[in-house]
Amino acid sequence: MTAKILIVTGDAAESLEVLYPYQRLREEGYEVHIAAPARKKLRFVVHDFEPGFDTYTEKPGYTWPADLAFAEVEPGQYAALVIPGGRAPEYLRNDPELRKILKSFFDADKPIAQICHGPLLTAAVDGLRGRRVTAYPALEPDMQSAGADFQDAEAVVDGTLVSARAWPDHSAWMREFLTVLRAKAPVT
């Protein structure tokens, strides 16, 4: 049986941070499902860096269907979890169904990949206390407030938790996550 991976996201997620791991993990042979607050067509965004701006800019991105609503997810069916960034984590961290899913993955010590603003979700369930992580650099104070040791690096591995700063770090992030996955949940 092929191991299944869950991606949790919503509207305003960063397009590349959803679709790159989705496609890369499928290429590796995993079955990948996307869960959101509801089964619907999700609207992603594109964040980019432009001269003269103090922060990233945001433009409309791709649309993609959610396979499941958070309330339909059975965490025990999944070998690992991916948490993309963008603006989605800002509001998703308040979703009680998603918080149950996140807690289940941490309690079972299953592999979790998080990127950019995704660690706002894991911080919301107290999953970062005492852990080494990276995130979008502007989140350093948030990560420290969550009890994490913030590191400004392409990819940071702490046990089964793999984090990255943003989409320019995809290659390092997925390389490290796949190393963890191959050890904990190999494709069969």
From TrEMBL:
Pfam families in UniProt: DJ-1_PfpI
InterPro entries found in the cross-reference section: C56_PfpI-like, Class_I_gatase-like, DJ-1/PfpI
Superkingdom classification of source: Bacteria
Gene3D superfamilies: 3.40.50.880
Residue intervals of the DJ-1/PfpI domain: 4-178
CDD domains with a match to the protein in the record: GATase1_PfpI_1 (cd03169)
Family membership: Belongs to the peptidase C56 family.
Name listed for the protein in its UniProt record: DJ-1/PfpI family protein
Protein's organism: Streptomyces gilvifuscus
